Amino acid sequence: MRLVVISMAIAAVVALVGTPMLIALLARRGYAQAIRTSVEGEPYPDHEGKRGTPSMGGVAILVGVVAAYAITHLVTWRPPTPSGLLILYLMVGLGLVGVADDYLKIFKQRSTGLRARTKLIGQAVVALSFAWLSVQFPNEWGETPASMAVSFLRDTPLVLPLGLFMLWIWLLITATTNGVNLTDGLDGLATGAAFMAFLAYVLISVWQYGQSCFFEQTSFCYTTASPLDLAIVAAAGAGATFGFLWWNTSPARIFMGDTGSLALGGGIAGLAIFTRTELLLPFIAGLFLIISVSVILQVGSYKLTGRRIFRMAPLHHHFEMLGWPETQIVVRFWIIQGLCIGGGLALFYAEWVRS
To answer: Is the pTM of this model over 0.70?
Structure first.
């Protein structure tokens, strides 16, 4: 637990102190994201008050995570593990895709950023390379960071061939990153929800470490390759999002941009894959799933019937259009995320008790 606390504290301090420095740098150079406005036949919530707010704040989150992981291992003189390094690779790689998207929004003032196809290709390159690397680097017990078995609370008997496994991992990563990206539409909404998700994986990883098969072979032990290092990464993610939330909560002084949302989504998905809890992800990332489903339903309904289910999608904008205050929407959606995570952790613990 000492390593987890150190990692979380370092990440929180780096993000808390580094974010205002980033705000000053971006504001001084006028690097602000274009604000989407209503056009004829396509109303949009009034976000004019956000104009001029710097974006690309995800850089501070990434710096906090990487710094916390590196410093924790240096201070305790512990070597990093392939599991921890691969999560960082996934977060930084997707973060760079987000940097390209934010660049277009900021410098070209194109509110939609990268074209959808280009962004998906960038995400696919990072996700597929991560998937292949995740089944390399076996430890002394022969466990690789990921397993090619589909997992729920542990690995299931369903083992995929390498090609299908890589597609499965790509699907999980793409769905989660886009879910976080869609949720990042109100001040602090995605940041707070991601903070809770990382905290959940801290608890899961610490529990798996305490019940690891490396200590004692039992019928209920966990075969996670490096559970303690995963807890360190998850703690870094929680600390960095916590520190960033101080500046991102309403009224936001900075937006995380796609740099942050894609990186956070990748980190959450990567932790689900490496903790062997892939099918538990809809609970841990419950709010992101709900937001994504609202968009799918809206688009599907409009294409099939010509009618919209919501006044606007994603779902949080629907409630904005109904006149709900932004902070009320954010807090209530955080509560929904907390309930989803609570249900997921209850399932995780109940399975161990039954075992």
So the answer is: yes
